[in-house]
From TrEMBL:
Bilayer disposition of the protein: Multi-pass membrane protein
Lineage: Bacteria, Bacillati, Actinomycetota, Actinomycetes, Bifidobacteriales
Domain ABC3 transporter permease C-terminal: 287-404, 828-944
Biological source species: Bifidobacterium callimiconis
Spans annotated as Disordered: 55-76
Name of the protein described by the UniProt record: ABC transporter permease
Keywords from the UniProt entry: Cell membrane, Membrane, Transmembrane, Transmembrane helix
Short name of one Pfam family: FtsX
Length: 952
């Protein structure tokens, strides 16, 4: 039976081609997702091994808990900051080569290229690190030297290449305070690729100042890095790291709240955190795999259904000579396994090629990766199992049909008429109705205040799980229900969709409609290939169009200001730029939005953001949609203006009193005085000891030794005079507190998850330098020429390189561009669906042509022209394609409407159905059908008429 199965597979191999392609596509995405994940993980491990390469790290002992927040936290644990003077204690430990704090800042610096434009990358940050000789073991100067002051910078080789700068060039570096001239004094490289990050080597004291400005903390740090001397300049082994960490822990002062850990431990923690953050990439790729394999299973089922039908007499003959049903079943399954193996092998190679193509594309876009991306044996085994399993599932039902058909009946040429589709119609209708009911329930949960239904059990589920579960269950029921119901829809759909072709092409149109109705299941399965992809894409298109329309609605109906200024440098706008904008002639008001970090309300953080705003916000920027209270008055009087979502979450009403707490770092005068006194005492003791040694040497007649010791004493005095005063400043973190009332609750979609307060209230909680300006809104004076004002504003912000002046249309376009980026993924899904659908339709028509060889031969014998045969098959393919597309459009648009309604409170206020895009999808489906019919039609016409008529 194995030989028979292999022989049949060889005989039918040409019919397996489309199925092999479908399996290969699905497996390629499975293997590609695993390869890409492993490559990214390897890239992260490489970068962590290079970028956090100290042998030991000293950090805080107390983990910062997030139990006091309403929002989810990162998987990376954070600990209390430690005193930077611990460096002195660590340096004296046996086995310590260097101990220092490497200060770095990210997102607040922008490098200007040689051509005068800002350096921009595809999402990778610009990072400034305080570097000197020995600071970073994995960084190696290839040219020049390290920076020593604010007006110098050393560039990572990739930054130098991207900016077109070399040693000796002068350019601009945009600091948080504004742009300054800097000279490139060095170029350095690192042991591994930095994935497109722009790394700037700053003078250590400059990086320290920037870090302190950004965090508002002086004399405190998260980590102290330690290089050990125990391995001849090479990185310490894990055992050596543990031994050094133990010695450091013994030397750390009691009460320092600090502990030493191995570098390997910190690298593992950082790597795992980043891998968790990148975890969404693999599921995203696997979505494509699921679609490809799901649709491919229909193609496989169609292929084997056709092969089984054609081979039924042969299987009946096997049964009549003693073959058991299981043996007949195995002959079909052997073919399926062979098909799965071939398709999976092709898919593994295609998946590897896909990853290499992604790496090439990312390198061209400025994000070079060096992680290993070759499939592992496990990846290949998973791909092989997936491909074979899907093929087995697709072939199982036809194989069972071949095995269970009675031999006598199977030998009859007219055997096995298609089963009635009424049971499937009933089952599918019930599933669709239940799915629609689930969507209605989901809509009720999202839009109705109070209990959504009169059923206590359902209300309890709604209260506990929210809207996600009925939305997902409804979608699953409707999609599967439509697939089950589709065969019952083939005949009425053929009548409707075939009306025009039958009217225009009376013979070929009617024949095409009749042919489709003869095999309803096959037609429906083929249409399902396009249905799934179109449903997903049309659903997300409705959501994306609604998001863009909602943004446009916010700007058109709510935005009062004439211009907005935004920054490409992590959204931060320098204070000097704000002052420059305020001085522009024709500006009536400038409203700054400053973000507050780590503010708690009644001891808990909100699931949103806190902002400091000016009273001009609601008069000159956005008109408040007030639910209760007076937003204008509240902001002027120092009260809170709370977004609707936050107010509901916390149960706040206008008039409620809220206690806000924050953190402010201030100079600890007493500790600073003590540190200065201790330093002076230590210096004096050192100088005195050296002077006494000099006197003893002089008394013993060693004039040269006495002179050397006297020089050491003088150098100690000079060092003391030149010490950086900031190293002797001690800080303390104090909890700030302010008790304020809720003055207004607003429902503007842009502010629903925000708490707004005026500057005076905000400054009771946070330092000026820790409140980042992320947006400016500018109102023009009455009668001002806005175009001329725009030119003046552009001129005012030009020196800051990263600032953009946006009018109302630009503002809408910028917000909408975020949605457009998502559409790229949607179109990729659509393209995948179309490719597989073409294979499915070609496969179905090819099998249908093979089944109707005699019929087509008779049509040609009685005078049907070659063009009419081509037309008949083209109409069949077009109807299948349009049928699947219409099912997908109806289902997808329905899902999009429900999602828009459910998330209307999160900004999707306007429903917009992109009829033009949906129309393009429909036209595209006709083109797909016509293209799919070319190969089967050519195959049908290549066979001579007499041979076709005589075929069995």
């Amino acid at each position: 039976m194995i030989r028979i199965g292999l022989r049949d597979a060889r005989a039918h191999f040409s019919r397996f081609v489309m199925s092999i392609i479908a399996i290969a596509l699905g497996v390629s995405f499975v293997v590609g997702s695993f390869c890409f994940r492993e490559m990214m993980n390897d890239q992260v491990d490489q970068m962590m091994g290079s970028n956090t390469d100290h042998d030991v790290y000293v950090r805080g002992t107390d983990e910062k808990k997030d139990d006091d927040t309403d929002s989810s936290s990162s998987s990376m644990k954070t600990y209390n900051d430690i005193d930077d003077t611990l460096v002195d204690d660590i340096k004296d430990v046996k086995g310590v080569k260097t101990a220092e704090i490497v200060y770095s800042v990210s997102g607040s610096l922008v490098l200007v290229k040689q051509d005068g434009n800002a350096v921009s990358t595809m999402g990778s940050p610009t990072m400034g690190i305080g570097l000197a000789k020995g600071t970073w073991r994995s960084a190696h100067l290839t040219e020049g030297r390290w920076a020593t002051n604010r007006n110098e910078v050393a560039l990572h080789s990739y930054a130098a290449e991207t900016s077109g700068l070399k040693v000796g060039d002068t350019t601009k570096l945009v600091y948080p305070s504004g742009p300054e001239d800097v000279t490139v004094v060095g170029v350095f490289d690192t042991d591994v690729s930095q994935a497109g990050a722009i790394i700037l080597g700053l003078a250590p004291d400059v990086a320290k100042d920037l870090y302190q400005q950004q965090t508002g903390e002086i004399g405190r740090t998260q980590y102290i890095g330690v290089y050990g001397s125990g391995n001849k300049g090479q990185p310490l082994t894990n055992d050596q790291q543990r031994a050094l960490a133990d010695r450091i822990n013994k030397a750390l002062p009691a009460g320092s709240k600090a502990t030493a850990i191995t570098g390997d431990q910190l690298r593992d923690e950082y790597s795992q955190s980043i891998k968790d953050m990148l975890g969404f990439i693999q599921p995203l790729i696997l979505i494509f795999a699921v679609i490809a394999l799901f649709v491919g299973s229909f193609i496989i089922a169609n292929t084997f259904s056709m092969i089984v039908r054609e081979s039924m007499r042969g299987y009946a003959l096997l049964r009549s000579v003693g073959a058991s049903p299981m043996q007949v079943f195995s002959t079909v399954i052997i073919q399926a396994l062979l098909l799965g193996l071939v398709g999976s092998a092709a898919g593994i190679g295609l998946g590897w090629g896909m990853v290499r193509l992604i790496v090439f594309g990312m390198a061209r876009m400025g994000t070079p990766l060096s992680g290993a991306g070759n499939p592992s044996p496990t990846d290949m085994l998973v791909g092989l199992l997936v491909g074979v399993t899907v093929t087995f599932i697709g072939a199982a039902l036809p194989a069972r049909r071949a095995a269970m058909a009675p031999p006598i009946q199977a030998m009859n040429e007219t055997v096995n008429p298609e089963k009635p589709v009424r049971p499937r119609a009933v089952t599918g209708t019930i599933m669709v109705v239940l799915g629609v009911a689930a969507w209605l329930f989901c809509w009720r949960i999202a839009t109705v205040d109070g209990e959504p239904t009169s059923v206590g059990f359902l209300n309890a589920l709604a209260d506990r799980y929210g809207t996600g579960w009925p939305l997902g269950i409804g979608a699953g029921l409707i999609v599967i229900g439509v697939i089950v119901l589709a065969p019952a829809l083939v005949r009425p759909a053929g009548v409707v969709l075939g009306f025009l072709p039958s009217l225009v092409f009376r013979v070929t149109g009617r024949l095409a409609v009749r042919n489709l109705s003869r095999q309803k299941r096959r037609t429906a399965n083929t249409a399902a290939a396009l249905f799934v992809g179109v449903a997903i894409v049309s659903c997300l298109s409705v959501v994306a169009a609604s998001a863009k329309a909602s943004v446009a609605g916010i700007v058109d109906t709510g935005l009062k200001s004439d211009f907005a200024v935004s920054s490409a440098a992590s959204g931060r706008i320098p204070d000097a730029a704000v002052d420059a904008v305020k001085q522009v002639d024709g500006v009536k008001s400038v409203s700054t939005s400053r973000m507050l970090m780590n503010v708690k309300y009644d001891g808990k953080r909100i699931s949103g953001t806190s902002f400091a705003e000016q009273p001009s916000l609601f008069t000159d920027v956005f008109a408040p949609v007030t639910m209760s209270g007076d937003a204008n008055k509240a902001l002027r009087d120092g009260e809170l203006v709370v977004g609707e979502t936050i107010a509901k979450d916390r149960g706040w009403q206008v008039g409620d009193t809220v206690t806000m707490t924050g953190e402010r770092v201030s100079v600890d005068e007493e500790a600073t005085a003590k540190a200065q006194a201790d330093w002076q005492a230590q210096t004096q003791a050192k100088v005195t000891a050296l002077q006494q040694e000099a006197q003893k040497l002089a008394a013993s007649g060693d004039a040269a030794g006495a002179q050397a010791k006297a020089a050491e004493a003088q150098q100690a005095v000079t060092d003391a005079q030149n010490v950086d005063p900031s190293t002797l400043i001690r800080t303390k973190s104090e909890t700030t507190r302010a008790t304020v009332k809720v003055g207004a609750i607003i429902s503007n979609s842009i502010y629903r998850t925000m708490v707004l307060m005026n500057d005076e209230t905000a400054e009771k909680l946070a330092d000026q330098q820790t409140m980042f300006t992320i947006q400016l809104f500018i109102a023009a004076k009455k009668g001002t020429d806005t175009e001329a004002l725009r030119k003046r504003l552009v001129k005012a912000v030009k020196p800051y390189y990263v600032l953009s002046v946006l009018d109302r249309e630009d503002y809408k376009s910028t917000m909408s561009s975020m949605v457009d980026q998502i559409l790229i993924i949607l179109y990729a899904l659509l393209a995948l669906s179309i490719v597989i659908a073409i294979f499915g339709i070609v496969n179905t028509l090819a099998l249908s042509v093979s089944e109707r060889t005699k019929e087509i031969g008779l049509l040609r014998a009685i005078g049907t022209s070659r063009a009419q045969v081509r037309g008949m098959l083209a109409i069949e393919a077009a109807i299948i394609s349009v049928f699947g597309t219409l099912l997908g459009l109806v289902t997808g648009v329905g899902a999009g409407v429900v999602i828009r309604a459910v998330y209307g409170g999160n900004g999707l206020e306007v429903l917009s159905i992109p009829w033009d895009q949906l129309g393009v999808f429909l036209v595209l489906s006709i083109v797909v059908g016509l293209l799919a019919s070319v190969q089967p039609a050519g195959r049908a016409l290549r066979k001579p008429v007499l041979d076709a008529v005589a075929s069995e």
